[in-house]
Amino acid sequence: MSRSSGRSSPLTPYLQVAPLALIMLAMVGIPLITVLLLSFWQSDGISIYPEFTWANYQQVLTSPVTLTLFLNTLKYAGLTLIATLLIGFTCSYFLVFHVRNLKWQIGLFLLCTIPFWTSNVIRMVSWIPFLGREGVFNQALISAGVIDQPLDILLYSDFAVVLTYIHLFTLFMIVPIFNSMAKINPNLIEAARDAGASGWQILWTVIVPLSRTGIALGAIFVVTLVMGDFFVVRVMSGGQSASVVSAMKNQIDQLFYPEAAAMAVLLIVVVLLMVSAILRIVDIRSELAK
Amino acid sequence: MAQATHRRGLGFYLLAGFFALFVIFLYGPMLVIFILSFQGPTGGLTFPLRGVSTHWFGDLWTSTRYGDLGGAFRRSMILGAMSLLITAVVCLFAGLAFRKRFIGAGPLFYLAITSLVVPGILLGLGISQLFQLLGFRLNWWLSGLGAHLSWTLPFGLLIMFAVLNRFDSSWEEAARDAGATPSQTLRYVTVPILFPGLIAVALFGFTLSYDEMPRSLLTVGGKNTLPIEISNMTTNVTTPALYAIGTVTSVISFAVIAAAFACIALIQKRRARAKRGA
Asked: Could you give the ipTM of this predicted complex?
């Protein structure tokens, strides 16, 4: 390894990392433990008492609403995952294997990522003039003669919710898949072609397996983002649909903090199970270390 | 180099068309609300445009219907600036530390990743309840800032890893061998070399904080930030003023992104020139 220097003390990394460690503990570690504690405490809707109880979990686990909420959230996550994966893979494939000029490649990649640095709320709002009864879509369809009556299902529906998710989160799929694909040695593809593989065979047996780290990372991002959302569901479904976190938000608004915390812990367990299932299929850590 | 002379087939054009559609899907709706924010005074939330005016921008300033937009904007800018500074400095040193082995590196890394994947509102609940248990008041500049840092620092750290991946530490060793103290090495060698990467970290620090909503909701106390005010407007306001505030805040975001990219490009240009001169 590198030469050790007499001047740099072994304490240096600890001093360097201390600010990050302190902020992460104070603002992530301890707050998450607080949520866990809170889920075992009693409340009467006005104040909270630090006395142990299973009641919050009992209520969450026995309520028939919980299952519906989880199924609904999983449905959103599944639909968004499929759509973002197809779009993200296709766009990354185009950028990496068809755009050969490096400047163009970086420029078009940045074009896909710039919206990440702008407001999600505004990007969501920007679908409203498109999808409404008098929106751009309905106007276009009517003037094209496809429909006579404006479609009502476009805005304030599951369709609007999933469309917004796809719009907001596809770039979380593009970035990691692009990174994985960019690392594929072009000689491998050349070798496959020389061996007589067709375009589809190359795609399916060379590129997809070698992009799996990116696909897995993207899937983790998209699933956790959809499962953690409450705002898009609330606004874009027009209050007609709910997800786990939007129901949790309602409980918080009504000051039922311990019930909300129990729901949150249950959600984290489900999300962790899903993430570890993805990690089971793809060992991201060993792949990234390569 | 058979690849380079390969003719562009039908596949290329199909994929290019798909990509173009995706870019339209990504930017089209935003473009539409920029246009609609210049709606005439009698216009509504959708087309047609009833005249072109800056009425709704003026309305944002003069009307009292939209709450404390000016104050919220000021707080968001201050929070963004604080996040920018703290994220850049903390992530620089943390990134340097992670190049060596130290006890707790693994758990700290996983804590940072946890902060990225955990639902923001849940972390907000945790932070607000912790503050209340300890008897502290919720304030946008303390609990709110902490909530923002829980979001910006992990991203900054990941960017820092990528930046340091391409950093050749033999520069530092050379400085050390030439007799530089650790602080001199940091100041005259490490930081100048890493500076474009640090601008990228700072860009994340500002924009992620400036647009953050779910983590802020429960942690800012009585005084709202701009994204919270805007998200309240999405349910209350049914005039193009909603699009006007969207245009204003997006223009600020785009200006910040452009400034960051321009800085990076400028530094790289200057370096290329220095290299040619040498």
From this structure: 0.90
